[in-house]
Amino acid sequence: MRTTGTTRLVRGVVAAALAATAALVPATAATASSADVVLGTPHARAHAHNDYEHQRPLLDALQHGFTSVEADVWLIDGELRVAHESRQTRPGRTLESLYLAPLRDVVRAGGGRVYPGWDGTFQLLVDIKSDGERTYAAVERALAAYPEVFVRYADGQVHGGPVQAVISGNRPLATMTAARERYGFYDGRSGDVRSGRPTTLMPLVSESWTTMFSWRGSGSMPAAQRTRLRDYVAQAHASGYRVRFWNTPDSAGAAREAVWRELLAAGVDHINTDDLAGLDRFLAANGG
Predict the structure, then answer these.
(1) Per the domain annotation, does 4 fall within a domain?
(2) Is the pLDDT of residue 114 over 60?
(3) Which residues constitute the domain of residue 212?
């Protein structure tokens, strides 16, 4: 793994995540996680899709320099359980144990930053899978318990923090818009780029790649689709929104790298992948 002057060992940050993970992964994976966590060189554009499916949620992403991670949550028996499907949820494997408490410990160890020396804001994308209103209210309560970690909106202003929580999935737009105080920010869609919503509410727009583009990385990107991609990103950026696509090709090979190169060239802010090591290598080699 690459190291820099800002890379360091983070001691004691993994306890909560390990406790939640140990019973759900092979013993070798759980015991391997007990080692100190090494922070990789941060990649401003690296987004860990379905991050919780890795052996060490959050922690593996940090080792590969990811600055955005995604967690699907279900409100079940009063817990914000993390899993892709409700049948996969387990008691104790929660947003707090896998993400919130470990992020707090990393931030404390880093002197108020996730990656010391990196001036960007880390993103926690919370994808609500259960009832939007009830689950969002529970997410807000959970985030509010970590005020030193999360960016906060209050009375028309955004107050900085090392991590911004963005709410995707079943997002209660009216509730979030009306709130005078909140820790959650809204994840828009491509149709929202012209909405005029303020970045104090909607800092991010996400869309399925296949909704907008048919090209999957084979051969050169058609000129019309490349123009559409770059125009879309430029328009979003002009309104202050960051851009993310999901459902991009993610099988290792030339097609995936071709798509990643186009995303990088167009200025897409968050490149989506399940392959942490693969994107780490790509961005290191391509200045991302």
Answers:
(1) no
(2) yes
(3) 9-29+38-286
> Using CB atoms within 10 A of its CB, is residue 142 exposed (0-12), middle (13-18) or buried (19+)?
buried
Residue 249 lies inside a defined structural domain of this protein: yes
Count of residues in the chain = 288
Confidence of residue 287 (pLDDT cuts 50, 70, 90): confident
Within a domain: residue 2?
A: no
Task: Please give the backbone phi and psi of residue 159, each rounded to the nearest 5 degrees, phi first.
Answer: -105, 125
Phi, psi angles (nearest 5°) of residue 220 = -75, 150
The amino acid that residue 179 corresponds to is: A
**In total, how many domains does the chain have?**
1
Q: How far apart are the two ends of the chain, measured CA to CA in Å?
A: 16
pTM: 0.90
d(CA 78, CA 76): 5
Contacts of 253 (CB under 8 A, 6+ apart): none
Say which residues have a Cβ less than 8 Å from residue 114's Cβ, sequence separation at least 6.
39, 42, 62, 67, 103, 106, 107, 122, 162, 163
Q: What is the mean pLDDT of the chain?
A: 90
Whether residue 1 lies inside any domain: the answer is no
